[in-house]
Amino acid sequence: MTGTLVLAGTPIGDVADAPPRLSKELADADVIAAEDTRRLRRLTQALGVSPGGRVVSYFEGNESARTPELVEELRAGARVLLVTDAGMPSVSDPGYRLVAAAVDHDIKVTAVPGPSAVLTALALSGLPVDRFCFEGFLPRKAGERLSRLRENAGERRTLVYFEAPHRLDDTLAAMAEVFGGDRRAAVCRELTKTYEEVKRGPLAELAAWAAEGVRGEITVVVEGAPESGPEELDAEELVRRVRIREEAGERRKEAIAAVAAEAGLPKRVVFDAVVASKRTTG
For residue 34, what pLDDT is reported? Predict the structure, then answer.
C-alpha cells in the first residue's frame, strides 16, 4: 500500500495557535519535510514533541529535486508530513509540486488545517470577505508590478497580497496609482505576534504612512473595484490614455490592454480607436 502525504499548518506567529493534531503528526510521521529545519526544531521544542521520523529540508531551492525522492517514500508506504515556516504549505510556500506529484501517483493527500495569514488578514481588514482572490507576492521589478496591478484593476473581489516590508511603500504607491488613491485597504503587520498592527485607510494615506518605514511580515488587503458600470470614454480619450502609456515606455499592445481594463471595454474597441486615430492624423 502507498503511504499518505500530510500537509500541516503551522503558527504564523503565536505558537499557541498550533493545531492540536500537529504534535501527533510530528511524532508519528516517517518523514518530515520542512522548509527550514532550524525553525522546525524550534517549533517542536516549543510544543514539547520529538519528531518520530527522519527530517529533511524541502524549500524552493531543492523542491524540484527532492519531490521525486519523497514520492518514492510515499509509494513505499511512508507517512510524509510537510510543514513550512508559517501557515499552510502550498500557499505561497513549497508544497504544490509534491501535492501534484502525489496526486499523479494516486497517493492519498490530507491536511492538518491550521493558521493562515490570508484568512486572518481578511477577517481583520474590515473589508468585504464574501468574495476574495489571493494574488501572493507581486513582481519585484516596478514595471512588472504595475502590469500585474493593471490586470487586477477591474477585479471586484477583495484582493489579498503578501509583500516584503522594504517594498511596501513602493507597492502601496503603485496600487494608489493604478486602483486610485481613494480605494480602501488594510495593511496587516505581524499577525498574531506581540507587535500585531492593522492599519486601515485609503491607499494614498497608507502609501504615505509606509514611506516612513515598516517592519515585520506584511499582508495587504485591498477593496475590490466598485460595482459601477464601465467608465464612459470617447475614442479621443481612449487614444490619449494609450499615448500616455506609450510615452511612459509601455508597448502599444500592453497599453491598449491596460486602458481597456481601466475602462471596462473589450480590447478591440480601444485598438480600433487607436487605428482610426492613426488614419486621421496620417
Answer: 97
Tallying the residues shown for the chain, one arrives at 282
Question: Rounded to an integer, what distance in angstroms lies between the CA atom of residue 118 and that of residue 40?
Answer: 22
pLDDT category at 250 given cuts 50, 70, 90 is confident
**pTM (2 d.p.):** 0.78
pLDDT over 60 at 231, yes or no? no
Report how far residue 228's alpha carbon sits from residue 61's, in angstroms, rounded to the nearest whole number: 45
Instruction: Give the span between the Cα atoms of 210 and 165, in whole angstroms.
Output: 9
User: For 167, left (φ over 0), alpha (ψ -120 to 50), or beta?
Assistant: alpha
